[in-house]
Fold these 3 entries.
Entry 1:
Amino acid sequence: MGDQYPAFKAAAVQASPVFLNREATVDKACQLIQEAGRNGARLVAFPEVFIAGYPYWIWLDSPLKHDKWFSQLFKEAVEIPGPSTDALCRAAKAADIYVVIGVNERIPANMGTMWNTNVIIDRHGTILGKHRKLVPTFAEKMIWSRGDGSGMNVWSMDIGRLGTLACGENSNTLARYALLAQGEQIHVANYPSLGLGSQLGQNTWIHLRAGAHSCEGKVFTLVSTSTVNEEMVKMLGETEEKRQFMTSANAYSAIYGPNGEVLASIEGEEGIIYADVDIELEIPRKQWHDIIGHYNRFDVLSLNLNKDADQPVRFLTNRPSASDAEAAASEAIAQLLEQIQADQHELRKAVDILAQQLGQQQT
């Protein structure tokens, strides 16, 4: 019969946050987690920075006019861990479901920096890790700092090995390959609904990226995208041009199989889509092209991944480092061994002399 591989139902959420309201959005997320769990899903994906919303104002006004909105977003940002993630963890445990959700992240020691972060929670209500978006896209640099390689991970679960990237990162070939090379089997890609898509084809971009990643890596991909509601338009759309920008996007979420095929999709409205994921289906696909195995040339092509976490300060002391201490200990041991060998030599000489003296006395 051989080994058995995970098969389960996956879910992708397409919904609006309660804009710039952390507690209300967490409540909504918990309700959606419970709904997905009741419908038999073992994994649910949420949109980019679902808590507590995408900073659409960066595309609408000069950065000099952002102070009010930036401050509001910062005050509604999420600390990891913290009360918001505690609530999400409780919901995941109650629903017996894995959760990947986007948040605006802040840290207690800083009053002006945020990250675009995906949080990964297991079905027991434990935070497995987080991924910070490596490079904020274009005007997003006005809001979020860069992530680092410490979150470029693939997390092992009883449903398979999962990795995640946010929005434009899914066009970064090296970032996607770094996850595949760590054995990724399930990929979560999340997005906002962005008005630029009316000219540049955001939904087409999403479809091409997700289908390509699934086809190249022979993995399942969950795409989760937020929607724009009337409350958000009223808050930010004080001119007809701004209202048009806010409403011109048409959100698209989908689940893709390991051939790049669409298993389920939703466009425009809020909802949760579901699809069956069978990890075993990846095996025959990889027989043809396994780019992290037989279908590559690692002697010709290679990738370096720096997983060190960025730190604002590294504290130094006058105490010797571990390596210095080890070197000093090794030198002391060598000197001791040398002394012991010298003492043994002198001892043998003394024994020889004593033996000679005893021999002379006996004769």
Note: The CA atoms of residues 196 and 202 lie 7 Å apart.
Entry 2:
Amino acid sequence: ERSLLARCMNAEYTGFFDIGMVQRNEADAIIAHGTMLLVRRAAFDAVGGWSPDTITEDTELGLRLFEAGYHAHYTRRRYGWGLLPDTYRAFKTQRHRWAYGAVQIFFKHWRHMLSGAKTLTRGQKVHYITGWLHWLSDAVGALAAVVNLAWVPFILFVGVMLPPIPFTLPILAAFGAGLLHCVLLYMARVKIGPARIAGAALAAASLQWTVARAIYDGIKVPDLPFSVTQKGKAQKTGSPTAKAAPASPVRTETRIGLALMASSAALFAVNTTGIIELYLFAGTLLVQSLPFLAATAMFVLERRDTARLTRDKAAASTHNPAMDTTRTAGQAAA
């Protein structure tokens, strides 16, 4: 955990390993993933090995093993440590691949989830279906935010009817329940402090737009190529990224988030008569802006970490010029 960004990402990952996987293990429905995954060779060969038609081949293999009647076991004991993505862009790329792969797996295996299918147990079906619905909820949330944002000009300048309370209260209630659920589960299962829980929530929320794009891509484009997650360069170079990214990875999220926040402020300002529905809609827009601005905040953390590491490296070179000269000479000789 070399930086604040890394601590946020690691806290978010920990929720998967210490909450989701533990719960799924009780129903023999774990997600097979590349980190520390062991598969019996006989079982691997029996189901046909790796499948080339999904970019999350480890998870797809695990589901095929379940469908073939094999069982799996998960333990929280750490036998090894994986590398975190080097940058927030890499973090988004990885999550896009996971969500996109989930869509591919759904289209390939949905028949096994039907009530009449006998290849999976009821518990396995429930966990896989709810897992897919989790990805879909991010896409629906992002779509609802964009639709509500497009509705604002009609309210302000045309006087179109406001969305009724039944369309706004569920969004506010879902946000509150989701936040409370996250905090309570982390406190009970992960055993980390409030700051790290907040970091996990920030990292998870920041990926809403990325997941929404992945769901859309999975439906429209069935065969996107595998995208490798940039890892390990930060440890070798001493900075979060070995090469500057060509453009901000959060440009779209920042624009949508600021537009939602500005729209919320405008609706609060024009509501001089205290219309409850207008207050609720303005509050909904404010809540919907948070996942988008969370992405902006994650990128700001990365830039801050980069600046700090650059200053530390410069200070180390200043305080130890002999070491710096030796390094330069060695590089020149090479």
Note: The chain has one domain: 4-73+84-314.
Entry 3:
Amino acid sequence: MRAMIHQMFGIALREEQMTQYDYMTYGVTEEQLGRVFRLFNTEVCRTLKVVQGAKAAMQQLAGRYEIALVTSRNPESKASTEYWLKAKGLPYDQLHFDDDKHALGIPYHAFIEDRHEHAHLIAETGATVYLLTRPWNAAPLAHPNVRRVHSWSEILDHLL
């Protein structure tokens, strides 16, 4: 997203400066963000790299758990997301597009998240949430079911 925003609008955003998830906080307009997301949903998400350690970890977890992927992405990205998951060989049993991840009624054993707000709402359902540390989720943890982790290998240490 940051690379797209820079390429399309000349706004340079480094990951470490992104202490909030909202791009408009950093001078990106709603109209610009809409243009970025339209392109992302149909084309760019097909070309994303897999986060380091995620593929191997998901393959190990698939042997023990049912994997439900729940994303806040726009449902318009469904075809591109499914293509990407298949092309990258990422295992999953269910795929959901919903910003209200906590309200889907899925009995999560564990949930891996990178948004502070989502992590705490999901933790309220009783699930243990592993919050992958990123600059935009550095706020203090406010729920005992949320555990900060730094890598997929650390997640595996907890779940296997």
Note: The first strand starts at residue 68 and ends at 71.
